[in-house]
């Protein structure tokens, strides 16, 4: 890569770099600073007072606050159930939408529409109207049937997946598009050669399609984790907001919770990135 190409790349990145510098860098640095502070209002009401408390806010999140560890564990549990189901669901739908049939573009649009509409106030209103759950679970006592058929741990896992299925459906549009784009990277001649050699569709999927889309699977896993982490009804985010508005805890403690939450989310993302790089090196 010569100097002209490097400069051209930097010019394309310039708007993003300016946005990070002006709108993201200061809030991040400030949140790190206040996470080590106890913030209150000055007696004369002229502004905020800052008292350095060191790591107390981070310790209190696990020692004095029983709610944050519980909500964090519940979020991890829901993510372990929802993330793989979301990616598998998106992969299956993408495989169907990649076939040639009349009205294919209409069905692709239908699966992507929730990404546009189910955001912000819209999804909050839908959830308030009871549209965030599957009605037949209560109507036909499916939950009781599961607990009477399976062990409590298995029944709890299946019930958790069914409870999250509407969320999976609403939030799988981007993943479906990514998988559809992944399928376009595979040359049709590869499938034709496999078909001539007598390979079945099942063998073609595992020998050709799956190895080619592994990087896209990792990308979708990372995207789904981040998407669930910013879900409007995420109880961890609600807890952080409540502590931010609380006079006894305030911005300092809420910032500490936010950074703990960020670090915990960073762990699975880092594992996925490292695993993806190893897979890429092995292929080379």
From TrEMBL:
<dbReference type="Pfam" id="PF00528">
    <property type="entry name" value="BPD_transp_1"/>
</dbReference>
<feature type="transmembrane region" description="Helical">
    <location>
        <begin position="12"/>
        <end position="33"/>
    </location>
</feature>
<feature type="transmembrane region" description="Helical">
    <location>
        <begin position="168"/>
        <end position="187"/>
    </location>
</feature>
<protein>
    <submittedName>
        <fullName>ABC transporter permease subunit</fullName>
    </submittedName>
</protein>
<feature type="transmembrane region" description="Helical">
    <location>
        <begin position="208"/>
        <end position="231"/>
    </location>
</feature>
<dbReference type="InterPro" id="IPR035906">
    <property type="entry name" value="MetI-like_sf"/>
</dbReference>
<dbReference type="GO" id="GO:0055085">
    <property type="term" value="P:transmembrane transport"/>
</dbReference>
<keyword id="KW-1003">Cell membrane</keyword>
<feature type="transmembrane region" description="Helical">
    <location>
        <begin position="75"/>
        <end position="98"/>
    </location>
</feature>
<dbReference type="InterPro" id="IPR050809">
    <property type="entry name" value="UgpAE/MalFG_permease"/>
</dbReference>
<dbReference type="InterPro" id="IPR000515">
    <property type="entry name" value="MetI-like"/>
</dbReference>
<feature type="domain" description="ABC transmembrane type-1">
    <location>
        <begin position="72"/>
        <end position="272"/>
    </location>
</feature>
<keyword id="KW-0812">Transmembrane</keyword>
<feature type="transmembrane region" description="Helical">
    <location>
        <begin position="105"/>
        <end position="123"/>
    </location>
</feature>
<feature type="transmembrane region" description="Helical">
    <location>
        <begin position="251"/>
        <end position="275"/>
    </location>
</feature>
<keyword id="KW-0813">Transport</keyword>
<dbReference type="GO" id="GO:0005886">
    <property type="term" value="C:plasma membrane"/>
</dbReference>
<comment type="similarity">
    <text>Belongs to the binding-protein-dependent transport system permease family.</text>
</comment>
<keyword id="KW-0472">Membrane</keyword>
<keyword id="KW-1133">Transmembrane helix</keyword>
């Amino acid at each position: 890569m010569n100097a002209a190409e490097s400069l051209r790349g930097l010019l394309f990145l310039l708007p993003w770099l300016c946005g990070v510098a002006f709108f993201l860098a200061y809030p991040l640095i400030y949140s790190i600073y206040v996470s080590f502070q106890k913030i209150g209002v000055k007696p004369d009401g002229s502004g905020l007072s800052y008292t350095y408390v060191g790591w107390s806010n981070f310790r209190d999140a696990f020692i004095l606050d029983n709610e944050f560890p519980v909500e964090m564990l519940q979020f991890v549990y829901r993510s372990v159930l929802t993330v793989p189901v979301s990616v598998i669901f998106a992969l299956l739908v993408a495989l169907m939408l990649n076939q040639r049939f009349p009205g294919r573009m209409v069905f692709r649009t239908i699966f992507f529409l929730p990404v546009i509409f189910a955001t912000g106030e819209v999804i909050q209103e839908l959830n308030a109207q009871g549209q965030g759950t599957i009605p037949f679970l209560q109507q036909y006592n499916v939950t009781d049937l599961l607990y009477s058929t399976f062990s409590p741990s298995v029944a709890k896992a299946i019930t958790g997946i069914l409870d999250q299925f509407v969320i999976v459906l609403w939030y799988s549009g981007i993943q479906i598009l990514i998988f559809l784009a992944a399928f376009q990277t595979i040359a049709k001649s590869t499938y034709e050669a496999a078909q001539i050699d007598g390979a079945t569709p099942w063998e073609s999927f595992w020998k050709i399609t799956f190895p080619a889309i592994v990087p896209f699977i990792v990308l979708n896993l990372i995207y789904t984790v981040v998407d669930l982490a910013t879900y409007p009804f995420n109880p961890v985010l609600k807890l952080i907001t409540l502590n931010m508005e609380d006079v006894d805890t305030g911005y300092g403690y809420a910032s500490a919770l936010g950074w703990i939450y960020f670090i915990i989310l960073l762990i699975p993302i880092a594992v996925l990135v490292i695993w993806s790089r190893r897979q890429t090196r092995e292929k080379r």
